[in-house]
Write a structure and sequence with these properties.
With 201 residues, this protein is mainly α. It has helices spanning 3-18, 25-32, 36-42, 46-64, 75-91, 93-105, 107-133, 142-165, 172-186, 192-200. The protein has 2 domains: 1-44, Arc Repressor Mutant, subunit A; 50-200, Tetracycline Repressor, domain 2 (Orthogonal Bundle). 77% of the residues lie in helices and 0% in strands. One of its GO terms (molecular function) is DNA binding.
Length: 201
């Protein structure tokens, strides 16, 4: 593993453990086993490190949802996507918890976030359309597809901040509850005979 990768691994570990505010570049360099000068060779500041980690997370989500969309060919494929999303959100949980604050502090990160947000929203809409075509979801008009897409995205992006506002810990189990909420959002629109299968996977 090269020094750049070591820095990113160390930063992710520290950010997940303590949040971004108390962690300095010196802390990251020490955890990575590199000199501060080596760290600054790769990254000008902590914000650049956070942006790179955000790009890593985005790439991971792209692998879960190719071309920004989940196209479930089966209930098993849909369930696998839910599980992979849960694990990805846990791996990058500091971003899930602090994203609103971080993008307010860093305009470049905000631009990256908005770009990826648009891709994710398109992906959710594509998923809904695919489920309609597969007969998993009942026929919906364009306005309803748009509203359902928005609600799913809002649950996905704000579940972790909601837990924090309540003073509750963001654990893997609590992240899974957010995924279950998305299932509940979808459930009223499922074709009747598919409802039990999707809600139980």
């Amino acid at each position: 593993m090269g020094s750049k990768e070591k820095i990113l691994v160390a930063a992710l570990l520290l950010f997940n453990r303590a949040g971004t505010r108390p962690v300095t570049t010196n802390h990251i360099a020490k955890e990575a086993g590199v000199s501060p000068g080596n760290l600054y060779y790769h990254f000008a500041n902590k914000q650049e490190i956070i942006r790179e980690i955000f790009s890593q997370m985005s790439s991971l989500f792209d692998k879960i949802t190719p071309s920004g969309s989940i196209l479930p060919g089966s209930l098993e494929a849909l369930d696998q996507a839910f599980r992979q999303i849960t694990e990805a959100e846990w791996e990058y949980r500091f971003l899930q918890k602090e994203m609103v604050t971080l993008i307010e502090q860093d305009p470049l990160l905000k631009d990256l976030f908005l770009e990826r947000q648009n891709a994710r929203i398109v992906g959710i809409e594509s998923c809904i359309r695919a489920m309609i075509e597969l007969g998993l979801v009942c026929s919906l008009d364009e306005a309803m597809i748009g509203r359902l897409t928005q609600v799913i995205w809002l649950v996905a992006i704000f579940w972790n901040p909601y837990l924090m506002l309540k003073g509750e810990p963001v654990t893997r189990a609590r992240i899974s509850e957010g995924i279950e909420l998305i299932r509940l959002v979808i459930s009223p629109y499922l074709v009747a005979e598919k409802t039990a299968a999707i809600m139980s996977v």
